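Students often ask why inverse folding is considered easier than folding. One informal answer: many sequences map to the same fold, so there is more than one right answer. In these notes we will look at a single instance of the problem. The structure comes first.
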C-alpha cells in the first residue's frame, strides 16, 4: 500500500507537537525533577493520557498508524514504549497495547532497542548528573534566539548570525 504523504506528515507533526513533548515532560518530572511536583506531574500525565487516547482511536481497525508500518509508527512508538515506566497504564487502550507489542516484536526494532543497552543507567541520576543536566551553563555562548521571538533589536542581532548560516546553506535545496 502507498502511504499518503500528507497523512504521514500530519501524524509526524502530531507526534512532534503532542505525544513526544507531553511524554517527554512527564518523563522529566518522573525521572529528573527532585521533590514533589503534583501539579506538573498531573498535567503531563493527563496530557500524555490524552495523546495515547488519540492514538487509540486512530488505531481502531488499523494495524499501524497509516495502515502499513511507517515512519509515523517509528516516531511515536518509543514514547508509548516508556508509558508504563512513567506510570501510564495502557489497560484502557487495547489498540495501543496491541500496536506497541506488534512493533516491539519486529526484529529490527528489537535490535534498535538493544543497541547501547550496556550504557544505560540502572538507577536514578546521581546528584552530580542531575546538576549537569538541569543547570544552565555559565560563561558559554548564548543560544541563538528566533528572529520572530521578540521585537527587541538585541534579540534580532543575536539571531542574525544563525539566520545568515541558514541562507548560506540554501544552495543544498533541490
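Output (designed amino acids):
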Amino acid at each position: 500500500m502507498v502511504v499518503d504523504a500528507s497523512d504521514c506528515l500530519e501524524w509526524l507533526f502530531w507526534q512532534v507537537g503532542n505525544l513526544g513533548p507531553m511524554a517527554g515532560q512527564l518523563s522529566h518530572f518522573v525521572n529528573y525533577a527532585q521533590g514533589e511536583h503534583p501539579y506538573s506531574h498531573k498535567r503531563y500525565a493527563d496530557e500524555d493520557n490524552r495523546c495515547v487516547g488519540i492514538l487509540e482511536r486512530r488505531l481502531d481497525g488499523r494495524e499501524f498508524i497509516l495502515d502499513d508500518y511507517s515512519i509515523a509508527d517509528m516516531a511515536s512508538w518509543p514514547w508509548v514504549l516508556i508509558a508504563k515506566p512513567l506510570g501510564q497504564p495502557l489497560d484502557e487502550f487495547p489498540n495501543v497495547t496491541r500496536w506497541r507489542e506488534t512493533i516491539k516484536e519486529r526484529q529490527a526494532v528489537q535490535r534498535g532497542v538493544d543497541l547501547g543497552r550496556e550504557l544505560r543507567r540502572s538507577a536514578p541520576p546521581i546528584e552530580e548528573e542531575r546538576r549537569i543536566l538541569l543547570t544552565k551553563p555559565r560563561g558559554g555562548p548564548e543560544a541563538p534566539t528566533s528572529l520572530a521571538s521578540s521585537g527587541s533589536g538585541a534579540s534580532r542581532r543575536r539571531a542574525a548570525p544563525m539566520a545568515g548560516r541558514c541562507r548560506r546553506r540554501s544552495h543544498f535545496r533541490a
